[in-house]
Design brief:
96 residues, two-stranded parallel sheet, 4 helices
Length: 96
């Protein structure tokens, strides 16, 4: 048995208001649910599965303008890899 703290994972999160804009800006929008409600149901399920696996899940809010600027600065297309990288980076910052 270990006393190590649970591993923290950043989970990309969107507000209802921003979701249509987020989805429209993504190059892989086909990978995102067509409605906020469908995305939210899937995200909550993923969060629960992670928690049940012993992970500490951090919801990382992705705001369209901030994320677009970050992608540009990083030279990344706004897609699932960028969303995951962004969430991981922000999670690491708030964990430090």
């Amino acid at each position: 048995m270990t006393d190590a703290p649970p591993r923290r994972i950043g989970l990309p999160w969107y507000s209802r208001e921003d979701y249509p804009r987020i989805r429209a800006m993504m190059t892989d929008r086909h990978n995102l649910a067509s409605t906020y409600e469908a995305w939210l149901a899937s995200a909550v399920n993923n969060e629960l599965v992670g928690q049940q696996a012993g992970l500490r899940i951090e919801r990382i809010m992705i705001e369209p303008d901030v994320f677009a600027t970050w992608c540009e600065e990083q030279g990344l297309e706004p897609d699932s890899k960028a969303r995951t990288t962004y969430a991981t980076e922000i999670c690491a910052r708030i964990s430090a």
